[in-house]
Structure formats: C-alpha cells, structure tokens
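so my prof wants the structure for this chain in the tokens format not the other one, which i didnt know existed until like an hour ago. anyway here's the sequence
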Amino acid sequence: MSTSMPYTTAITVTPTDVEKLRDSATGSCLVWDEATTWVATIGRDQVATTSRMIIAGRRALADLEEALDEQGMPVTDERLAQDLTDIANDHRTDWPGIRTMNLQVQGLREAVIGPQAYLDCAPLLQVPATGLPRMTDYYRRTRTGLIACVTVSFGYLEPTVITVRAPREGLRPVTEMTVETAGALRPHKVHRLIAAAVDGALDLDL
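here's what i got, hopefully its the right format
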C-alpha cells in the first residue's frame, strides 16, 4: 500500500539543513513547519509550537552516520539529507494525528522543556485498532543523558506512562511509572502533575 500523500508537496531536507543541525546547540531539532512549509533547525525552547513537525533531533545525525558507516556507504551531508528527507516524509504520513496530539501536549512540553531537559527526537504516534490514540515524547536530561519516554492518551483519558532509559542500558527500560490523569483536573494542572513526575524520573540516580 502506498504511503504517499496526494495533493501535497514533499518535504525536502538539504545539505545546508544538515550542516545547520550539526552546528546547533544541544536540544535543537530539525523541523518542518506546516504554517510556513519551511524546514529549519530550531532551539529547544521553540519546539513546542503545535504547527511544527519534528523530523529529528541533533543526536540523530550521529546515529545516521554510524548506520551509513556500518553499511560501507560514504558519509556525506548529501546522503544524510536524503535520509532525513525520507524520514520527514514518513513522519508526514502521521502528521494529522501528531498535530492533533501536539495541541494536547503543548502545555506539557512547555512545562518540561528547559535548561535541564529537552525533546530528544520526533514523537511516536500509535493508533491501535481498539482503544485511544497515544503519542510518546522523548525527553532527555541534559546532565545525565537519562531519557523519559512519556506516553499520553488522547484527552489524558488513560494513565500516562513514563518509562526511563539510561544511555548505558540501550533500549532496555530501567524503570516505569504511571500517572493517573483522567478526571476533573484542568489541563494546566494535568500538565503540572505529569511534568513533576517526568522531572522526578529524570533525577533518578541510575
């Protein structure tokens, strides 16, 4: 089945975009902005804007370079731009759902992102056959490198799941907690509750 999106213009990442991402500060992300249709690298404090689709975090370049090297392929900005272009257009397939969830989690992102934590990569959207849509954001602690994978459901109607990973443990989760977010709490209080749990999880001595 084709995943192409008719009546839309494909996103293109250029070698210049790769260079700007490489030279950016920690916590920066490469994004596509639906409102302006541009691709740009932005700082951690600007990522939460709901019209911006995260393509990749700055750290993704190292992973792509390692993968190309393992495949015996030349590591060039042109090749990295091609890979990021493919990634961007794959993400755009899920963009309508991500955009909807972005509206929900904007306040949460603003509450978590700061000098000590940042969004590390693009979110993961899950739309199960049964149950509510879910989206996972990945927050990295600046000092320790710990990652909190924060999975929220549509409307916060199911418990929010926070899974912590340590860099030395690879993809294996080292701890997990849930935050009950359904009920009468107003959105800003839900965001404060989850943000406090994320901050505490990222402060664990692992």
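also thought this was worth mentioning. The chain has five helices and nine strands.
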